[in-house]
């Protein structure tokens, strides 16, 4: 019935698109893509690279996702952690699980983000 995951959507507060761009585009290095014209008036911002698609949509009232979260895979977790810390972000150890190591960071809105490396 299901084929694959098309995208993940996270909520963000209204009017914070530039803050989202600085974190997701700057700190995480995700390229921004233009939203379809029919959705541009709703606010938010979209990022895509390869098969990874992340959409941020405006939600009012806004409440950050503290437990539910996307998990992004990297090929070099140590380098990702260095880059995140250099951007002034607090990186929390997520502990190792069989076949992976992981960390957590919060986006500027308080949404939990997991970054992991498979081993």
Automatic annotation (TrEMBL):
GO terms for molecular function: dioxygenase activity; lyase activity. It comes from the Bacteria. Keywords: Dioxygenase, Lyase, Oxidoreductase. The keyword Oxidoreductase applies. Coiled coil: none annotated. Residues 4-118 form the VOC domain. Gene3D superfamilies: 2,3-Dihydroxybiphenyl 1,2-Dioxygenase, domain 1 (3.10.180.10). InterPro entries: Glyas_Bleomycin-R_OHBP_Dase, Glyas_Fos-R_dOase_dom, VOC_core. PROSITE patterns: VOC. PANTHER family: FAMILY PROTEIN, PUTATIVE (AFU_ORTHOLOGUE AFUA_3G15060)-RELATED (PTHR39175). This is Catechol 2,3-dioxygenase-like lactoylglutathione lyase family enzyme. It comes from Pseudoroseicyclus aestuarii.
